[in-house]
Amino acid sequence: MDRDVTIRAGMFGTIIVLVVLILATPTLLGHPSELSSAPVLLVAMTHAGSTLVVGVTGAVQAYLYDNITLNVSRENPNGTSTSLGWFAQNDTYTAELYVPAPENSTVLWIHVRLVDQQQTYFEFNVTMSLDATSTGHLTMVFNFPDVQDAAPQRVVPPDDFRWAVPRRGMLA
Hints:
Layout: H1 2-28, E1 39-45, E2 51-58, E3 65-75, E4 81-92, E5 95-100, E6 107-115, E7 120-132, E8 138-143, E9 153-155, E10 161-164, E11 167-170
Antiparallel strand pairs: 1-2, 1-10, 2-5, 3-4, 3-6, 6-7, 7-8, 7-11, 8-9
């Protein structure tokens, strides 16, 4: 009876080890699997408070995307918009823009689009504005036009905003 339990435990352990090796081998060889391509959008304010750093990269580890497009624009009071920064590049790991921090009543539109090596695309829109707390600290306020019933998210610098960029589909 003890021998049967030992053999079954050994077989179960072998299966677990083989599954781990199957998942880990591409990463060890320097070829990350498509699971590691999930991107994350980052927005942070510099210590001086005059500049925003807007970036996008792989959430788990560096991943070579086929294309990354990142755009930051300011919504003007008359309904038009002004581009503050644009990044579009093929075969890149990350994108980063430095843009002027908005004034209190100004809204920034941030648009990110990534295409991975399997032609899956990830896309997201977020708006950002600044607000002052009751104690006088600047607060970054993020709204999500693509997400129904999403509550605004408030981030007080030096903390940064992080959001997983969702998968939208496959390119034809």
